[in-house]
Amino acid sequence: MSQRRVFRRFILPIAWLLTSSVIAVSLVSLAFTGSSSANDDQLDPTGEVPAETVTVGKTTVENTLAITGTIKLDEAQTLNAPVDGVVNWAFVKPGDNVSKGGRIFQIRAEIQPEATDTARSADNGSKSADEQPQTPAKAVVTYHDVRATATGKVGKLAIALEDEVTKGTALGKMQPENF
Questions:
Q1: Which residues pair with 80 in a beta bridge?
Q2: What's the pTM?
Q3: Would you call 44 helix, strand, or coil by DSSP?
């Protein structure tokens, strides 16, 4: 047999067996016999906690903190109309709390498109522009919300329902809750 084969077949398994046996014997002796008696004399588990002695005295404790400063609310923000139109709906009233992005007003805006020709002449241009009948186009109605720019309280309103407003008109004030 070759040396490699002898090593793998006989020597390596015998070495594993001897190592495992030494470990097993050590664990059994520690489990059943314990450690040396010299170390056991120093440690005596009694389960008692030694009491600490603290001297109690009577004194006055004073804790003073002096801070100077001023607490001011942020300035009230103006609510402006985003488009020309009529105030259609108020979602809140003065004094109500609103969160950022909450709806405050709704504005109804009507956009009047240009008039369109309804009749064309057969000979393209035989009638003048004044003679051609025109029908008024229907107005396109859109609704725009005025939203809160910050969390806070709605202040005094400068407009009422059904008031006409132009773009940028101040509709009221809103007091943010920030300091």
A1: 170
A2: 0.49
A3: coil
